[in-house]
Amino acid sequence: MAEVERLKLKREVMLKLIKALIDGEELEKVSEIVSMDPNLSLRLLKFINSPYFGLRKEITSIVQAVAYLGYQNLKDYIFVLLTSSLLKSADRDEITKILKQAFAMRYVSEKLLPAHTDEAFMVGLLDPVLKEVDEAEIKKILQKAGVSDNIVMGLLDKDSSLYRIKEFTKKILSFCEKISRNEQADLKDTEGLSFSEIDEICKKAEKEAKALVSAL
């Protein structure tokens, strides 16, 4: 792993940054928050100048990087970094698997719960963290980040719509993996999605996850 990937990030800065993005703070303010953590600044510049974006000219300033990424891409990226920082052992394979679930949740949500696609992505990212961080700590972290109650419910409340989408997404990912290995697989409830739609969701999620991990 490259040296820049080993840089320890300040969680408080990441939480403050997520809240600023959710609140729609001016990009200048967002840039100021990023600059509070030199290591985060280095990681962000590495990310924006990676082949993932294919820029013709290198971006060298945080202001430019933030402006180019915009709120949504930057929020997704910081949530990925936050998730990896909460996991005790997060190698590239593990992060790829987590991202695949997050992207799949976003695509499933586009079909079944279109008003909550961004929240679905965040739930997919944070779900594996529950194995290593207790519920009280997760709630505290998300509260500081200013995320919606829907995300907390999607992680913890079995009756919430996002929780059900999370469990359904896990089932279709398992189904797709078995099919790819030519194993017998059965998916009793498809939630109204066709098998071609499910296959497309799995393939798109895997492609996006691998592409993003290569840029981190």
Describe this structure in words.
This protein is globular. 69% of the residues lie in helices and 0% in strands. The protein contains ten helices and no strands. The longest helix is centred in the middle third of the chain and has 25 residues, at 62-86. With 216 residues, it is mostly helical.
Q: What structural category do the secondary elements indicate?
A: mainly alpha
- Parts with pLDDT < 50 across at least 5 consecutive residues: 1-5
- DSSP strand content: under 5%
Shape, principal axes of CA atoms: globular
What is the string of helix and strand elements? HHHHHHHHHH
- Report how far the terminal alpha carbons are from each other: 10 Å
Continuous helix count: 10
Rg on CA atoms, Å: 17 Å
Number of strands: 0
Arithmetic mean pLDDT: 89
Helix content: 55-70%
Largest sheet: none
Pick out its properties.
216 residues, mainly alpha, 10 helices, globular, disordered N terminus
What's the layout of helices and strands?
Layout (H helix, E strand, L loop, with lengths): L10 H13 L3 H8 L3 H11 L13 H25 L5 H21 L4 H10 L8 H11 L3 H8 L4 H20 L14 H21 L1
Outline:
By secondary structure, the protein is mainly α. Helix content is 69%, strand content 0%.
